[in-house]
Design brief:
- With 89 residues, the protein is mainly α.
- It has helices at 2-9, 24-30.
- Residues 61-76 have a biased composition (Basic residues).
Length: 89
């Protein structure tokens, strides 16, 4: 953005700093010719019925190892005390 600002402030034309390959006329000229598709004779039009096509054998890669978590069933519960059971003399 600073180069654009300096070109404008000096009174120069911004378009004089653009390469001719990026102009609309160059783009139009490069696509002015019609593009023809290439006929491919090697590909058969019909597939024989006796041809069995099966998918490739795909194996899953190694997964991320599972985390070792503490089972909540075996986790010890904190001791609770009731205030009624404590006798203070």
């Amino acid at each position: 953005m600073t180069s654009l600002t300096s070109i404008i402030s000096s009174g120069g034309s911004v378009y004089s700093f653009i390469d001719l390959a990026f102009t609309v006329s160059s783009f139009s000229q490069s696509y002015s010719h019609s593009i023809h598709s290439i006929a491919n004779i090697e590909i058969p039009m019909e597939i024989p019925e006796d041809c069995d096509i099966i998918p490739p054998d795909v194996r899953r890669g190694p997964r991320r190892p599972k985390r070792k978590r503490i089972d909540r069933k075996h986790k010890s519960k904190p001791e609770t005390y009731s205030l009624e059971a404590i006798v203070i003399d």
